[in-house]
Amino acid sequence: MVYVLESLRQTGKNPAECNLTTQERIIERAGVTAWPKLWHNLRSSRQTELTEDFPAHVVSAWLGNSERIATQHYLQVLDSHFDKATRQTTRTVPEPMRLDVHGVHKNEETPYFQGVSALGMGDIGLEPMTSIL
Fold first, then answer.
1. How far apart are CA 29 and CA 39, in angstroms?
2. What residues does each domain of the chain span?
3. Per-residue confidence (pLDDT) for residue 97, from 0 to 100
4. Against a cut of 0.85, is the pTM above it?
5. What gap in Å lies between CA 118 and CA 105, rounded to an integer?
6. Is the pLDDT of residue 112 over 50?
7. DSSP string across the chain
8. What is the dihedral of CA 32, 33, 39, 40, to 10 degrees?
């Protein structure tokens, strides 16, 4: 297992009692720009990732907040959520069916509209007749 803050593990200190802003100074000394609100954004990312695989109440218990707080402050809507939603609702459009004047598919003997007798419609079809002006 790889730990991000290995130095905290080695000292045996409780991470809740440590001043983690020291870690931000280390990031800056390394010549890397720290994210704004670093710890909030890290927590938000992880809470969102875990909630993809586990129920929200479980993840909230693990991370020490409530579902309400998680929803208001940490959970994110990701592009992958939108991609997944559009992928699930996208359907392939079938080849257009060619119908004869009676509404019967030319290559088959079954009506295009299930439950409607295409041969019993006569020449007027489904729509009522309108007067010709």
1. 18
2. 1-34, 38-91, 94-122
3. 61
4. no
5. 10
6. no
7. ---TTHHHHHHT--GGGS-THHHHHHHHHTT-PPPTTHHHHHHHHHHHHHHHHS-HHHHHHHHTS-HHHIIIII----HHHHHHHHHHH--PPPPPPPB-TTSBBTTSSSBSSTTS-GGGGTTS-SSPP----
8. -150
Amino acid sitting at position 100:
D
Give the residue from 20, 60, 12 showing the smallest Cα distance to 39.
20
pLDDT digits (tens, 9 = 90+) for 16-36: 666 766 777 788 888 888 888
The residue-averaged pLDDT of 12-18 equals 66
